[in-house]
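REVIEWER CHECKLIST
Item 1: Sequence provided? yes
Item 2: Single chain? yes
Item 3: Sequence as submitted:
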Amino acid sequence: MVKAEFIISAASKRDFPQDGIPEVVFAGRSNVGKSSLINRLTGNEKLARTSSTPGKTQSINFYRIDGSFYFVDLPGFGYAKAAKSEIQRWKGLIEQYIINRSAIVLAIQLVDSRMPPTILDLRLFEWLERLEVPHILVGTKADKLSNNQRNTQMRVISKSFGGQSLVMSSAETGAGCKEIWKRVLQATAVTKSSSE
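Item 4: Structure as written out by the authors:
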């Protein structure tokens, strides 16, 4: 059983936790299913608030896992109905966090497995590559696809990201969660052992 607790919803840099434990970041477009996946991974469906309204998460949410690392839920990007000033504020907060946060050990980039990646998906991937942030690609909502569709979409999405491997997942069925946990534990263990 995973012990997961909400710590803070950070609206600015001064709100970020300062304990220096590893951080695993969840990033992706609005409504891609970040909160739902966090809830499935932790086995706590009430941990991260999910909303049917895209762009609802406007701050960076920190959840401490087993007292030893954080899951960090970033605001979704690409939500057009928010005010431009608000979008710029989110963008600035996310950039400030990722560029300056040495505790990040893994970024989990979520893409909707039912559709081809958008230009914003590709830009995020390129940005993480450029900043040399360790990251994996996860396709969400895979339960909405048939087996044939799933295989096709895996190829399409992987090819869009230059052959990057993709974990197909579902917050509904738990598909892909074991693989995601494996990557998370590898990333957090490396940091813990290297700092001892």
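Item 5: Key structural point noted by reviewer: The chain has five helices and seven strands.
Item 6: Recommendation: ____
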